[in-house]
Recover the amino acids of this structure.
């Protein structure tokens, strides 16, 4: 593209664009009305635009612009037949040649899927020299592209560069067409995306009042993963026209990109303006597909096909629905239909790969992405999807190579760039193996974490093998990232994910305890949780719905250790009481498109309660039968029907009863009255007032009342914790101990409480309690030398030299300043534990640092004497 | 105040004697090197810092006398408020008082003595220059460099624990100089924790990493640096003080000094522990004990040499040779003890 065009020319184009409506017929009254009609159209007053354009066209004034505008104003709200009639009526006046309306006819016919008719009209407009022939050429090129006739399409797109260079006064719409053409060409030359941006910029300058170029440019930025720029353009477009269906659809796409729950809202708003937009319907179908709500997804796809029976996007969603259902025949039909319409439509497999990824079917995602690149070797998003999903399967070498290809073709993709950067860092990670696991850890942390993680992982594997009667493919790979941003990139390609861990099946990734502040999470329960996913995903061939996999993982945590996975909170109970939690039928929405902040966390707990209820009522066998059902491709309603002979509505009602019963007093106490706040809050308020005025006994009494109505709560502001602290401050060790014990049995993250508990256990002389509290603490923050020193001493005092060895190893891994002592104490523990040979080499490490270390020398002599 | 020696002091002192290159812990008789300690606690500003600096200064002085046997006459403590410890604090910690204390110490120090000057307080940075906030005019590195020129032959260690202290390296680096600063530049102006852990190094057991019953200045530095880093990590804070040590005179502080690193060799031989004239005299009078001490030195040297070969050796062979040597050392140490060495 000629890059010599200057801002001066932009300015000229702007002047020309503004002047055009008037310049052609400056003294005609129609020009004023045409400007008003355009204003109505551009600001989204489509009824007024229809009336204004229609009036002009009927008077045969300002044709062909008025006739085209009339049709556009009708088409933008989905009145396609009316739009075609408007064009015919405009042409019938004879004031303008019929061919002047063929470009717009072709455009509308294409939306309706009448491709051949559309092509004929578009070619007619071009051949007939219609004043909008440039736009018709773009439309034709896109039509050909969608039909897989890429060579001719590319030739047409390529012509837009010549057009741009040769044209002295292109209109805004023509400049926008140039931008769109360059976007297509950018698949083969990524540098052209910059030129596309420039063309759109010039289009905006040429007609600042037209939101269309801004929307088109926003779509371009979204395709290049730039949500921020896209958002700014959409803000501008919507400020001008809040009813712009394209802007609303782009807004929905952006919301999806950002993981916002508003995606469905925006696309529904778009469909309110134009209920017959096949693209918007297909996009809504995609959102439902990703929610695994296949019925709604299918319905939306079919509605799109009612308008446009050859909509590739809608047919792709039908294929996705069929895939999720495991309906091979329907899948084949939809796929074959797409490929018969466009044999090179790589977006089919790109879309399927994305859906497969979103629904945790990573092997399927790889397979689909491979098919996509096989169809079109410039399908860079497919290369990216392929590489990322290869990595999710643990295929690092292949994944890296694929991502390198993706990056070469599209250097704008931040997922690819970030992941390649991460892979460079990952090369330095250290590897540790256990019987059924392989761990990858940062070198700074590997020494410490490899003491604990493999032992816990193997325990989890044994526990879950028994529980599910199944073993996932091994070795299970566990990547533990020392920086949260690296984990985030590994998981979603970008920083900012809120999750702690992720399971891709037998490949797990998680934050290390060093990736977050101490007390933010329990890395042991997180590891256990992700291993649970490896089981349920593997069991069902990755067909388990998100809610069930998460519910089981949280329940598995609760089975593993006291306090793990016990996350009931006032917020959860309030959401339950206010019926803000999704019903069983739409359980996945709470995870994938949460309706309010915090709903994801609430959904985890809700799902865990559901599976806990099922297990209590029917045993683990029922859970296994559910997993069997999903593995066999059944939908949720069919699973419940087959396993429990109960429909979802009835089950949902019983779940609500279960929760109401289990947390009845708390729900009641949390319920506000007319004065606001419930009894629970009143107790806490009273406790605070008593405490501030020094009435400690009354404060304690009030806290006891709060605890009594909601004994399960163990958040940082729980009455139980406040009580424990208050008792401790009052010197009532016995009461403090009871409260701290109760709190620690419910809370897995609160380091201070666990250390305080250890202190109190020590004070009252219960060494087992000390060990237990400190053992739990290592799953909160394993980097504190003091904790390991205490724990080592406690285990050694109890004669548990094996545990002492573990803790001494941990201390050494923490690189203490006094390494000689650390080696010596480890050697001593090893010797006492019967590992004389290792004790000898270890004590030599101490003496290597400190040759005069008397204690170490004595131990060495002792070891030799023992030999 | 009575000097307090623990039961292992004999070994401490014997070990001190064994390191021919040790500063302030070698030689025999009235001309033997001694350690001099000057502690300066500057302006606290807020009461909590006034108390903190006082406690840190006092703890260091106590440790020097009680644990490490530095004679009270060799210690000068200048503080913001002399009346908090009358008789122990020599003067108010003004720049003039420090200059006088340096001159006075230089006047009585032997030619091979070591002098440890520890500055505790707030600091500030002005371009590349660091200042310590004292009552009256602040003390700059240049000021101190001029005063320290009074020491013409002695080894001088300056430990500036204040914030923004990094500029002292440039100002004081030189021959026979060890400079430790709590920060690597004058631009690190947040409060520092270095002083607290540096004092702890002389109070606790953890800093003596080679278990020779002494704490070298290098060990004290490493202990303090590591504990500072650990504290920031534990508190989930970004590390805002990066201590450095310079002892090769190149005006560049090292964060990771060591016996074989560009910086650290001199600091590794600088001890607060005083020489025991009695023990030294005993060794001089008892050829057998002197021979044992020489043998001990030989074995320690052999161990040090073996360590340098570790990466080139078969691990089992290396361990076997190491084991032989350390057992020899243990036996020699036992004989030294049986001869009453150090008692």
């Amino acid at each position: 593209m000629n890059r010599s065009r200057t801002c001066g020319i932009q300015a000229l184009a702007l002047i020309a664009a503004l002047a055009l409506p008037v310049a052609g017929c400056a003294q005609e009254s129609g020009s004023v009305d045409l400007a008003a009609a355009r204003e109505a159209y551009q600001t989204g007053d489509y009824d007024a635009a229809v009336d204004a354009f229609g009036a002009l066209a009927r008077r045969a004034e300002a044709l062909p612009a008025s006739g085209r505008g009339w049709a556009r104003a009708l088409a933008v709200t989905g009145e396609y037949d009316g739009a075609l009639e408007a064009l015919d009526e405009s042409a019938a006046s004879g004031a303008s040649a019929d061919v002047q309306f063929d470009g717009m006819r072709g455009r509308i016919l294409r939306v309706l899927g009448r491709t051949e008719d559309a092509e004929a009209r578009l070619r007619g407009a071009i051949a007939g020299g219609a004043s909008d022939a440039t736009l018709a050429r773009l439309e034709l090129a896109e039509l050909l592209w969608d039909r897989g006739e890429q060579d001719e399409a590319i030739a047409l797109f390529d012509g837009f560069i010549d057009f741009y260079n040769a044209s002295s006064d292109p209109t805004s719409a023509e400049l926008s067409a140039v931008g769109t053409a360059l976007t297509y060409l950018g698949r083969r030359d990524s540098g052209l995306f910059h030129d596309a941006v420039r063309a759109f910029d010039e289009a905006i300058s040429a007609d600042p009042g037209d939101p269309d170029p801004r929307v088109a440019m926003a779509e371009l930025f979204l395709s290049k993963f730039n949500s921020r720029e896209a958002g700014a353009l959409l803000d501008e477009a919507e400020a001008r026209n809040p009813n712009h269906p394209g802007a609303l659809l782009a807004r929905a796409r952006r919301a999806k990109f950002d993981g916002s729950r508003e995606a469905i809202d925006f696309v529904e708003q778009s469909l309110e303006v134009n209920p017959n937009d096949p693209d918007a319907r297909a996009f809504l179908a995609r959102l439902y597909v990703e929610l695994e709500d296949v019925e709604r997804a299918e319905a939306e796809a079919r509605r799109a096909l009612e308008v446009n029976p050859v909509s590739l996007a809608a047919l792709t969603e039908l294929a996705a629905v069929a895939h999720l259902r495991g309906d091979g025949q329907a899948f084949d039909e939809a796929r074959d239909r797409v490929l018969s319409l466009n044999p090179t439509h790589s977006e089919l497999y790109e879309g399927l790969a994305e859906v497969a990824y979103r629904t945790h079917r990573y092997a399927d995602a790889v397979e689909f992405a491979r098919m996509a690149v096989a169809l079109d070797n410039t399908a860079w998003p497919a290369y990216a999807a392929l590489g990322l999903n290869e990595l999710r399967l643990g295929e690092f070498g292949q994944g890296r190579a694929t991502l390198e290809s993706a990056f070469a073709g599209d250097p704008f993709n931040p997922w690819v760039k970030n992941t390649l950067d991460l892979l460079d860092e990952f090369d330095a990670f250290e590897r540790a193996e256990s019987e059924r696991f392989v761990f990858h850890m940062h070198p700074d942390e590997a020494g410490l974490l490899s003491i604990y993680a493999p032992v816990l992982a193997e325990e989890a594997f044994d526990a879950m093998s028994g529980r599910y009667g199944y073993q996932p493919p091994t070795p299970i790979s566990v990547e533990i990232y020392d920086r949260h941003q690296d984990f985030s990139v590994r998981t979603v390609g970008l920083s900012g994910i809120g999750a702690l861990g992720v399971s891709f099946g037998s490949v797990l990734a998680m934050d290390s305890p060093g990736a977050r502040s101490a007390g933010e999470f329990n890395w042991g329960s997180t590891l256990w949780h992700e291993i649970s996913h490896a089981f349920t995903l593997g069991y069902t061939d990755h067909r388990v719905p998100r809610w069930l996999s998460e519910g089981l993982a949280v329940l598995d945590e609760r089975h593993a250790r006291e306090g793990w996975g016990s996350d009931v909170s006032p917020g959860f109970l309030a959401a339950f009481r206010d019926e803000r939690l999704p019903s069983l039928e739409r359980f996945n929405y709470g995870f994938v498109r949460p309706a309010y902040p915090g709903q994801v966390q609430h959904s985890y707990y809700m799902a865990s309660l559901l599976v806990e209820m099922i297990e209590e009522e029917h045993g683990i066998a029922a859970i296994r039968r559910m997993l069997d059902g999903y593995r066999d491709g059944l939908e949720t309603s069919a699973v419940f029907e087959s396993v429990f002979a109960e429909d979802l509505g009835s089950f949902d009602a019983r779940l609500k009863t279960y929760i109401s019963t289990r947390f009845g007093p708390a729900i009641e106490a949390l319920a506000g009255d007319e004065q606001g706040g419930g009894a629970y809050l009143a107790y806490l308020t009273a406790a605070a007032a008593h405490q501030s005025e020094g009435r400690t006994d009354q404060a304690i009494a009030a806290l006891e009342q709060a605890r009594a109505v909601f004994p399960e709560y163990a958040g940082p502001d729980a009455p139980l914790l406040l009580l424990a602290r208050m008792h401790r401050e009052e010197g009532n060790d016995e009461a403090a101990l009871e409260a701290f014990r109760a709190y620690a049995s419910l809370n897995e993250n609160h380091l201070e409480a666990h250390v305080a508990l250890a202190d109190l256990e020590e004070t009252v002389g219960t060494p087992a309690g000390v060990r237990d509290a400190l053992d739990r603490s290592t799953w909160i923050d394993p980097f504190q030398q003091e904790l390991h020193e205490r724990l080592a001493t406690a285990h050694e005092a109890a004669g548990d030299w094996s545990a002492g060895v573990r803790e001494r190893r941990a201390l050494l891994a923490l690189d203490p300043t006094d390494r000689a002592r650390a080696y010596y104490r480890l050697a001593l523990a090893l010797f006492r534990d019967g590992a004389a040979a290792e004790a000898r080499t270890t004590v030599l490490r101490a003496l290597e640092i400190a040759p005069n270390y008397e204690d170490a020398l004595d131990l060495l002599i002792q070891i030799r004497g023992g030999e | 105040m009575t000097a307090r020696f623990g039961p292992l002091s004999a070994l401490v002192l014997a070990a001190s004697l064994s390191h021919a290159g040790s500063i302030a812990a070698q030689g025999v008789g009235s001309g033997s090197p001694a350690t001099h300690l000057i502690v300066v606690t500057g302006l606290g500003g807020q009461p909590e810092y006034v108390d903190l600096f006082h406690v840190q200064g006092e703890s260091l002085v106590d440790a020097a006398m009680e644990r490490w046997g530095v004679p009270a006459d060799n210690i000068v403590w200048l503080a913001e408020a002399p009346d908090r410890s009358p008789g122990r604090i020599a003067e108010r910690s003004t720049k003039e008082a420090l200059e006088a204390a340096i001159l006075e110490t230089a006047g009585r120090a032997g030619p091979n003595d070591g002098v440890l000057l520890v500055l505790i307080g707030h600091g500030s940075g002005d371009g590349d220059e660091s200042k310590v906030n004292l009552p009256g005019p602040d003390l700059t590195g240049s000021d101190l460099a001029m005063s320290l020129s009074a020491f013409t032959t002695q080894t001088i260690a300056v430990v500036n624990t204040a914030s923004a202290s990094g500029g002292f390296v440039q100002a004081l680096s030189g021959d026979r100089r060890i400079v430790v600063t709590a920060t690597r530049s004058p631009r690190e102006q947040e409060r520092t924790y270095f002083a607290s852990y540096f004092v702890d190094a002389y109070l606790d057991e953890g800093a003596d990493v080679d278990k020779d019953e002494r704490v070298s200045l290098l060990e004290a530095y490493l202990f303090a640096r590591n504990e500072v880093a650990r504290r920031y990590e534990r508190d989930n804070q970004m590390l805002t003080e990066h201590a450095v040590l310079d002892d090769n005179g190149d005006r560049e502080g090292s964060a990771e000094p060591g016996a074989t690193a560009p910086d650290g060799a001199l600091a590794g031989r600088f001890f607060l522990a005083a020489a025991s004239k009695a023990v030294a005299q005993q060794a001089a009078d008892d050829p057998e004990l002197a021979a044992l001490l020489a043998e001990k030195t030989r074995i320690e040297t052999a161990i040090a040499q073996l360590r340098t070969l570790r990466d080139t050796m078969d691990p089992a062979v290396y361990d076997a040779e190491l084991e032989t040597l350390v057992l020899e050392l243990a036996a020699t140490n036992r004989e030294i003890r049986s001869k009453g060495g150090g008692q």
Notes: The longest strand of chain A covers residues 476-481. The CA atoms of residues 298 and 318 of chain A lie 6 Å apart. The mean pLDDT of chain A is 92. The radius of gyration of chain A is 33 Å.
